[in-house]
Amino acid sequence: MKIVVTGAHGKVGRAATQALLDAGHDVLATDLTRPGFERKPPGSADYRMADLTDAGDAFAVIRGADAVVHAAAIPEPTGNPAHVVFQTNIMATFNVLEAAVRFGVQRFVNISSETVPGFFFPERDFLPDYAPVDELHPAHPQDPYALTKLFGEKLMDAAVERSDIRCISIRPSWVQNEGNYEQNLGPQVRDAAVTSPNLWSYIDAYDLADAIVLAAESDLPGHEVFYIASPDNVGGHDFAAVLKQYYGDAIELRDLERVDASGISSRKAMDKLGWAPKRSWRDYLDADGRALPKH
């Protein structure tokens, strides 16, 4: 397929672009970065600069696509004014999806966020109702970024009601790659008391990219939402024990698939997409949370 990847120069977009190329797809990458004019390496993606908050740019890059992976967004709410986060993310998603509908694109992969239930940037204290969190957990967005991601999912619902497009929204956990495992997750590996708002959850960028490829190739009808998180928690802790230790009875503990389970369940993605994660923090860090020599 010809697949457009938006936000292609971000952490998720880069990994997704390469995974789609490796799967044999023809990829048009787009971002705000100005293009270079050197000879393109064999097997690399085409690139076009576009500001997707501009409808004309969105329509220009989506025309002729079979599928879209929409990863472009301001990725968190603290580095920009709230109205900038909201306007940028909402209008980029609306414009790209509208172009996809008008041009008859068959598949749309929307990169949403684990923050939709209320994780990470709450403006008041927030805890999930139960753990591991799954797609049935109520949405309680606590910040402009999470709100844009919830609204993005609502846009997908509307698109499948008015066209033949098939949409999948992926809610990744905290995305890590070889460059940031030690900085981000090292402290939690060493000490479970370094809690995170997503209950010690994370996802490897390349496992996430594998899920994105499956979503882009999927024939699932309508609009489906999937959490994508590694099946183990950061540090490999006994999840039931650390949940009880640090949260008491405030969070209902539900059935676990393994002792060191993640605080977010990806069972639905495994069952319906056939996603099989291959990587763990253990591939990058030692038991003290320090980077292994190869990384």
TrEMBL record:
Pfam families: Epimerase. InterPro entries: Epimerase_deHydtase (IPR001509), Lipid_A_modif_metabolic_enz (IPR050177), NAD(P)-bd_dom_sf (IPR036291). Keywords: Plasmid. It comes from the Bacteria. Gene3D superfamilies: NAD(P)-binding Rossmann-like Domain. The keyword Hydrolase does not apply. Signal peptide: none annotated. Residues 3-218 form the NAD-dependent epimerase/dehydratase domain. SUPFAM superfamilies: NAD(P)-binding Rossmann-fold domains. The keyword Calcium does not apply. PANTHER family: BIFUNCTIONAL POLYMYXIN RESISTANCE PROTEIN ARNA, NAD(P)-BINDING DOMAIN-CONTAINING PROTEIN. This is NAD(P)-dependent oxidoreductase. It comes from Rhodococcus antarcticus.
